[in-house]
Structures are given as structure tokens and as C-alpha cells.
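[step 3/7] fold_predict: job queued, chain A
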Amino acid sequence: NPSKAPLRPRPPHPQLKLPRFFPERLRAMDTTVIVRNQPYDFVVGHADLELNPRTPGQLRIETLQLPSGDTWLKVSGQTSYTNKNLILRDFVLSDQEQLHFLQIDASQIDANYLALNINCTVGGGQISASAPITETKSSLDTKLHLTAEKVASEALNKFLIIPENYLSGEIDRLALEATGTIDAPRTWNGTLSLQMNDVHRREINFDRGVMEISAEQGKALLRSADIVQDVNNFHFQGAMELPSTFNDFGRTPTNLKISGTAPDLARLTAGAPFGLTGSAQFTGTIDVVNATVEADLIVSAEAVGFQEGIIDKLNSRLRASKRVVRGDSKRPWWADLRTANNFDLTGIRYRDYIV
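[step 4/7] structure written:
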């Protein structure tokens, strides 16, 4: 009795493969698909789709709901389907969200090759991407090209199925060129250039951020990362050996250098439980050696004001170390964390007390 047969366990690391369901012709009328999710289900309600190699067609959806809860009614787009090459055009959700062109080219699927192309408007900005994918004996190889301009990051939250307000600010410019095996980071080669503006969240707040990353020969280089917050600015630079698997990210040899100046501590600590005034300078390093992270941060500050008090001069050195476990480990992040903090304070005044 097949219904009583035990389920075969899912392989711990299933091999990535290309989809194979590309019929010669497809007709689906009044079709509803519901995928259970949180906080809302993904719903395609009462959809009509006919893929006919001989004639253009349409995709019509009565109700489209994303897991974010965003819902659109009576949306449609133009389709064509020749030699298993699916194209969807002019699928308009709103003035700010429009799928101009989507191509899933499976014309060479029998040769283990699939090509993807997309051009869309999201958050009022433009995103385009292309990715030819080749299936090998062990995984998938790809060559990814991605660009984005003037995209309101908040609009991506609903499409990427991440918590509301997780992303903020504007993606002023994004350019990514990458090649390699998808699930083997050590094979990645490429460049990433990103500029973001007006990112304002409780844990991070800046006016402009620019980052340049490259990867080649098994190593990723953070060529520069600059964050500007009014007169405050921070700079990062470093390198990391790429791991062979995703679960080893954070465990491979890494070196990161940090420097920054904050003439306006009030702006830097705005929104924090404690508010400070004054100015400060930062330098530090973060290294990963033998799967152990070592952090060393030095801070010097002057005229540090806090509620009902002030410190004329402050010098501090924070050192921390921690064994980095694999990404599939369930141990809490603070396990094995060791810290040491040294302070040198001069001219402390609190209310009527002077030290």
C-alpha cells in the first residue's frame, strides 16, 4: 500500500537542478493557487493562462496576494510562448510596480541550459537582470548581471518576503556582475558596486553609503565601504577567503579594518536609549583565524555629554573573541563570547559630583 509507505528523508544537501516542466502547450482557466505562508498566504486567485506557440496570449489574475499582505485585483499581461521560450510583457500592478519584461527561455532545456531575463519598475526605480544557467553533474553554474537605479528599498520588502520595514532608504545605484557555481562561494568571481541614500532605522542611520566589492580566485575583497552621516563618517576595508559552502561563511580567514570620525555624537546616537554629545574617533580591526573571530576597537572622545553629566576625555579599548560555529549549528550566537573593555576617563562631572 503506497499510502502506508514511509516517506523518504530529504537529502541534507540536495543537488541544485533546473526545472523540467516546460510543456509544448498549456491552458489553465479559472485556476487558483494558494501557498501557505506567514503573515499571509501567497494567493493567485482565478487566473487564466494559455501558452500557445502559434498565437500570443494573456495572463489574467483576478486576485494576487503576496505574503506581505499586499493585494492587487484584476491584473494582466501579454504572453508569448514559442519553442518553450516564455515571455510576459506589461504586467502592471501599479504606477510604482510594473513588470515590463520577463523571459524564461527553456528552448535549450534538453541541453541543460536555461536563460532568465527581467526588467521591471519597483518603488519607482528600475531593476534589470539576466542570468543564463547551466546544469552540471553536481550543481548549477550561472553568469549574473543585475542593475538597479533609484529604487525605494521599502518597496522590496513585500517582494523579497522579508519583514515589513526591514529595508529602508533609496538604492541610488546597484551594479552586480558575477559568475560561478551557485552553491559554491569559492568559485565566485565578479564585482559589486552599491550606493544607498537616506537609510534610517533604529539600529543604523546614515545619509549616504557607498560600497565596492570584488571576488576572484577564491577571495572576496571589500575594496571600500564609506558611510556618511552628516559630518560623521566611517570607512571599512578588508578581505575574506570565500568558503566552499554557505554554512562556512564567517569561519574562513578574514581581515577587516575600521576607521571613523564622529564630530557630532548627538547625531550618531540619536534614537539610542542613551543620548551623547561631543566628538569621537574610532579605529579597529576584526580578524577571523582558525574559525575564531577577534575584534579590537579603540575609541577616543572629548567633551562627552550625557544626561546630567560630562566627561572631558575618554579613551576606551574593547577586545572580543568568539569561536564561530557553522551556519547550520543551533548554538546561540553569544556562546563562547569573551570580552574585555578598558576605560581611561578624565574630568568626570555628574550632577554635583566631580571626579
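[step 5/7] annotate
Helices lie at 156-159, 265-268.
The chain has a mean pLDDT of 92.
exit 0
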